[in-house]
Amino acid sequence: MKFKLLFSYRFLLFILSVIGVYLQLTKHGGFGMMLYYTILSNMLVMFFMGDMVWRMLRGRSTQTQGYLRLKGGVTMSHHDHLCHLPLYACTDRDTLRSFTVWKTSLSLHCSFDVSFFDTLVIDKPKQYRKSDPLAWTLLPLLYMVFALINGLVLKWPVPGAKDSPFPYFFINVNRFGWLYVAKMATIIFVAYLLAGCGLFALKRIGKKGTDHY
Fold it and tell me: Among 35, 113, 176, 211, which residue's CB has the most CB atoms within a 10 Å radius?
């Protein structure tokens, strides 16, 4: 892909991601929305897109192995949250409906969902290590620990959450107990790990010798 076309494409995604995050924060509860994993992962992808644009402006490569491994983790941090949507569909349809409102923004669909295309198609293949899918689960696990601390200790209110100060029903230990939360956490962890393994397998296809920026 020609440099100017790729730069324009990534710059557009960055602008759309900024607009999307701005709308999420200003239209649905302010900075308290950052207690949701969904919002935090969106912001992470937004900042990473900005970094890619900055690197390209300065003539620095976005295709080193270390950078691509980090990018793989950022990509999965956003798309992995789709793994727990079936839990809402089965157990909490009201929350699912309110959750999907945040995902209807055109800017978010165009930027965050297309960002997976950037990782899958544009990035050099065969750059990940076998341990990366496991490492990519670290961020959602750390978030879950933080969400439990907030729900049990800090008790910061979560805008729009029926289980506030817990952002999601499946980590509400006061309502369901530790055994239920551990079960749900295990299911989500396995789903995240399998998704990461899927990306790893897909990126094993192709040749290293193609032109990339």
Answer: 35
Distances in whole angstroms, Cα of residue 4 to Cα of each of 16, 79, 115, 196: 18, 27, 18, 30
Residue 39: the pLDDT is 86
The confidence score (pLDDT) of residue 87 equals 53
What are all long-range contacts of 157-166, with beta carbons under 8 Å and residues at least 24 apart?
Answer: 157/32, 158/32, 158/35, 158/36, 159/28, 159/29, 159/30, 159/32, 159/33, 159/35, 160/28, 160/29, 160/98, 161/36, 161/95, 162/92, 162/94, 162/95
Q: How confident is the model over 161-190, as pLDDT tens digits?
A: 889 999 999 999 999 999 999 999 998 899
Query: What's the pTM?
Result: 0.84
Radius of gyration of the chain (CA): 18
Cα–Cα distance, 105 to 53 (Å, whole number) = 23
